[in-house]
Design goal:
By secondary structure, this protein is mainly α. About 75% of the residues lie in helices and about 5% in strands. The protein has a single domain, classed as Rhodopsin 7-helix transmembrane proteins (Rhopdopsin 7-helix transmembrane proteins).
Length: about 300
């Protein structure tokens, strides 16, 4: 496995974590443990509810299943290690573990970018071209777009890993973070990484910024189309679109903040990562259930069926 061979004499990295205070660590351990369990269970509940509810066979809910699976997976990349590390003062991650973490983070994040974009297109077609909705957003197309999301995420993550494999390290090996992130590795590298950092900013930050603005334009078109709807139709459309737009903002704002800047790390980066990798996957199932009557009713029917 040559691609996983440590560069130079570095075989592991030391993570400083969120805090060095033992009492705060214990509190954070309980908080993040609860958040992690809730996030995984809530997203899996959405997947199970949609899969077992014939009333939720619309393309929107098929795509929501993808989003829930991605959120459950994304938070599982970083949160379990953070939880375990909060119980120890010595926090170590191997070179292979660091490489795997970077790959999975970018793979799942890029896949989620594509799924969120497809979900926005789904809402655009449903509101602006309602008569052609089922023809355009047919099941086969949704499945194909789901595969495209996985392939797109794989390609993006592979590019990031190829960049990482070119880095050389000669010490120190301390990362001021609770997870491996690309910018921290760039700062620890021995060679000049300015150009590489610019490429990463264009690859990740440019993609986030461009897609975010395209989504804002699409929602401007949706809001314009809603002016001709009746009050009830406008209310229902705004409810579903509002949930999705909230999810888009929660995902893209941290992404834009992190990657559309020169290569550097700041103390606030840790909490931005907490928000994007831990809190956002927890908030998404809440957003999509609290604001969606169909999903809530399907969950109630599922619970009643299991109770009988």
């Amino acid at each position: 496995m040559g691609v996983l061979r440590p560069p130079n004499n570095v075989t592991e990295f030391a993570l400083l974590g969120l805090t060095q205070n033992p009492h705060v660590q214990k509190i954070l351990f309980l908080v993040f443990l609860f958040i992690f369990l809730f996030t995984v269970l809530a997203n899996l509940l959405i997947v199970i509810t949609i899969s077992l509810s014939p009333m939720l066979a619309a393309p929107m809910y098929f795509l929501l299943t993808y989003l829930a699976l991605l959120d459950a997976s994304f938070t599982s990349v970083t949160t379990p290690k953070l939880i375990v590390d909060l119980l120890h003062q010595r926090r170590i991650i191997s070179w292979r573990g660091c490489l795997t973490q970077v790959f999975l983070e970018h793979f799942l994040a890029a896949s989620e970018v594509i799924i969120l974009t497809v979900m926005a297109y789904d809402r655009y077609v449903a509101i602006c071209k309602p008569l052609h909705y089922m023809t355009i957003m047919r099941q086969g197309l949704c499945q194909l777009l789901g595969v495209v999301a996985w392939i797109g995420g794989l390609l993006h993550a592979t590019v990031q890993i190829l960049f990482t494999m070119d880095l050389t390290f000669c010490g120190p090996n301390v990362i001021d973070h609770f997870t491996c992130d690309f910018f921290s590795l760039l700062e620890l590298a021995c060679s000049d990484t300015y150009r590489l950092g610019m490429v990463v900013a264009a690859n990740s930050g440019g993609m986030c910024l461009l897609i975010f603005f395209l989504l804002l334009i699409s929602y401007t078109g949706i809001l314009s189309a809603l002016k001709s709807r009746g009050s009830e139709g406008r209310r229902r459309a705004l409810s579903t679109c509002g949930a999705h737009f909230t999810a888009v903002v929660l995902f893209f704002v941290p992404c834009v903040f992190t990657y559309t800047r020169p290569v550097a790390t700041y103390p606030v980066d840790k909490w931005v990562t907490v928000f994007s990798a831990i809190l956002t996957p927890m908030l998404n199932p809440i957003i999509y259930t609290v604001r969606n009557v169909e999903v809530k009713n399907a969950m109630r029917r599922l619970m009643k069926r299991r109770a009988v």
